[in-house]
């Protein structure tokens, strides 16, 4: 009987190659250079400029800018509302995606089109629509203008499609035979969803949640008419940043923008950790 021998040097080389990957070709290197240059021009350099502007007058001035009572109130309102809206989007967006993929009903195609309206509609028009429905002269008899509920509703409107559109294609590609096999072995519907479906959907759900949160904290247009932009009550960070720019205070505007950048990055990291744990558990 013969046995295969493995050369130690070759084995180590293979492991090193598996870790580092193949060396870049000239074409690949050129593509990587163009991609990184484009990414730097559009993202890295502008972000670095914002951070540099925020810290131009030192940490003391930066801290004073973000702890100002009006600024701090706008940050709390914006981030808190965005977190709540993201949680709602995760649940309702996944539910809507499930209905669109797994069920057949009259008006399904119309619903598919309606889901994308917040994508196509200019945000100022969305604000006008919401004000017409939920303003003082709205036909529903519900007036939430100039309240924090208006901020929540505006965020909810513009972020609705993100989770739906990230979860829907993944859900459509899931193998139904795996679910049927689990059911034949006695697994309950909850167990099938929790152990089979959810781990597969988690990357899409977290991606949609990150997009929803980022869209929420940056929203401006749909809030202008409905929320009233009242300081300490309904003023969000985007309005606060614009006010600082209009008052020729770029440092304060950059400071608020930097805080939002850090918060958004932290949220993305947390969602990524949740995604990894859920997938590993599944």
Explain the overall architecture.
This protein has 13 helices and no strands. It is mainly alpha-helical. Residues 1-19 have low confidence and may be disordered. The longest helix is centred in the N-terminal third of the chain and has 34 residues, at 69-102. The chain is globular, with a radius of gyration of 24 Å. The chain has helices at 8-20, 26-54, 59-67, 69-102, 108-115, 117-120, 123-134, 148-173, 176-184, 189-217, 221-226, 237-246, 250-281. Helix 2 (26-54) packs across helix 13 (250-281), helix 3 crosses helix 13 and helix 10 runs antiparallel to helix 13 (250-281). It is a multi-pass membrane protein. Residues 1-20 are annotated as: Disordered. Pfam families: BPD_transp_1 (PF00528). Keywords: Membrane, Sulfate transport, Transmembrane, Transmembrane helix, Transport. The complex is composed of two ATP-binding proteins (CysA), two transmembrane proteins (CysT and CysW) and a solute-binding protein (CysP).
